Each structure stands twice: as structure tokens, then as C-alpha cells.
Amino acid sequence: MFVARQTGPQPYKKICSSTIPTTPTNQPTPQFPSKTFHKKSTTSPLLHLPPPPPTTLPLNNNQTKMPSSTKTYESRSKTHPTAAGRKLLQIMAQKRTNLCLSMDHTDPEKILSLVHQLGPKICLLKTHIDIIAFPPTTTTTTSIKSFTTKLQALAQQHTFMIFEDRKFADIGSTVQHQYRGGVYEIASWADITNAHAIPGPGIIQGLKEVADGIEEPRGLLLLAEMSSRGNLGGGEYQEKTLAMARSREWRGFVMGFIAMKEVGGGGDGEEEEEEEDFIVMTPGVGLRVGGDGLGQQYRTPEEVVGRDGCDVVIVGRGIVGADDPVAVAEVYRERSWRAYEGRITKG
Ligand code: 5BU
Q: 70-266+274-346 has which CATH code?
């Protein structure tokens, strides 16, 4: 019988922090009904968001367009075309962290406790709201609302944003209901969400119309490719997704991609005077090469951020399943931040 080799972070398996390298190892390179939500502004005192940049950023004829990966998060926080992107980049620069915690636990109380401990280490908290086992003590909707309100309070307290990894994948009309309504009311509490490009531009339009009804900035990531082995993204699919993201219609909403390496960044061809900036977030990150036996592939922070120009590393079981999640999160934060510093120094 074939038994998959499991070498990366394992589900809630102990990882001894003392064995985790804080520097790159010498291992071979890893492969691895209309309702709108109006909320009061809850901007943290840490954040004094700059005003939106002009819609076009003129360049001298002689000026060369620089890839986003060579610029600092701080400079990008002043010019990023989306408000959600500017806020995130500013948090990253001020807290010195490009770590996103993927909180894939199913117990709501455990999640809140871990997020409280790990909040200082992260710029972003990624959720899968539909895997959480909410107690049937009150109506489910009330439990969910209470939970998401607590998450927002933690985000405010520790200055991070919330990303619901919903992976919308339907026609515009349907995703509007899924984003705004149902029991989760995702648009009311998640700063960022993501979507597949497979349905075509209507999915972006549908989500944007919901986001436009919300006072706080909302951002969308498109899936250009995935971290799992054999995924159908990348290549031509990624090129078409990038072309869709570049439409002027969603400037201010599509803030970046889920991808395994830097995407775009050299101007969009049609609008030669503009520089584009897509924030790339990357799952499948471990402290060493491996996989989880179910298709997940892990690469190191040095490869993902330093070599491949991604901006935010997304880490789940590597942190949540560790003996000491706070110590291990610090290792991920430190290595990912150093990889970023090395990258901008080279650029
Ligand atoms: P892990 O425990 O670090 O492997 O968790 C990765 C998380 O990122 C998990 O929540 C996935 O659903 C999520 N993910 C991913 O692994 N790969 C992808 O391409 C995308 C999301 Br999109």
C-alpha cells in the first residue's frame, strides 16, 4: 500500500521548538435582501492611514518600472491602489511582520485564546469560518456574530487584519449573497477575502458591489495558483487571472493574489504611465521542505519571500500544531522578515 511521506507541518502534531532552525538549513532547496454594513471606524492609534494616492502615477520617460518586490512595504503603503492594501502594508511595516496566521482550529474558544497570544506576531489572521464548530447553546447566528465581534476586537487590540479564505467561485449574483448574507455575513467582519477567477469578471463585480456598501476598506485576492500539488493554476490560467485583475473597474478592490511567486508589477501595458502593485500572499510555508500527505507542499520563508518575491507568508499547522505556538510564530516571523529585508537590499 502506498503511504504518503509526511515531512512538513502536521495536523496538531507536536513540533519541538528547540529543534526548529532559526536560520536556513543546508537542506536541498525545498519544492514545495440588500443589506449594507456601516461600522464605526475602528482604526488603531498605530495607524494613521495616508490619503489615497492619485489614480495615475506619472513616470518620467526615462524612469524604469521597478517590480514591487524591490520596494519597501512602507513605500508601497503610501501608493498601493487599494485602501485595504495600504492598511495592510502599513501594519506590516510598523509591526515588522509579514506573517499571516492561518487559524484552522475548529473550537471557537481555542481559536480566540490562540489569536490573543499570537496577535502581536502577525499582520493578518486567516480564517475558515465554515470549519468552526459553533456551540448550539444559542442560535448559531448569534454565536457566530459574537465570535466574529470578538475576533474584530482582537484585531483592533493587536493591530492585524482579518482574511476569510472563502475562495468564492460562483456567478456574481450568488457570491453577493454568500459574501453579504447567510449565517456568516462575511463582508461585515472580514477585511479581505478571496475568489477564484474561473467564473469570469462577474464574480469580481458581484463582490465589489457588496464591498462598496461597507464603510471600512474591503480587499479581494484572486487565486492565480494554489500551493497544492497538481493544482490547475499558474501558467496561462494565471496570465488570464492577472489580465482580469488589471481592469480599471476594480482598481481599489482587487489588492493582490494568492500565488507562489510575484505576479505582475511591471505596468499593465494599456496604461503605460501607471505602476501596478499586487500584494502576493502565499500558503504552503514550512520551516523545512515537505508535504502533508494530502497534496500540500511546503517551501521555506527564504524561498517564498526572498527568492520568489511573495509578500505575506501564510502558516497554519506549523504554528497552531506546535508545542509552543508563540515561540514558533516568532521563528516564522523573524525568518520571513529577514528574507524580506534581504530582498529589498538586493533590489
Ligand atoms: P497549513 O497548515 O500551513 O498547510 O495551512 C494552509 C492554509 O492555507 C489552509 O487554511 C489552506 O486552506 C490554505 N490554503 C492553502 O494551503 N493553499 C492554497 O493554495 C490556498 C489556501 Br488558496
A: 3.20.20.70
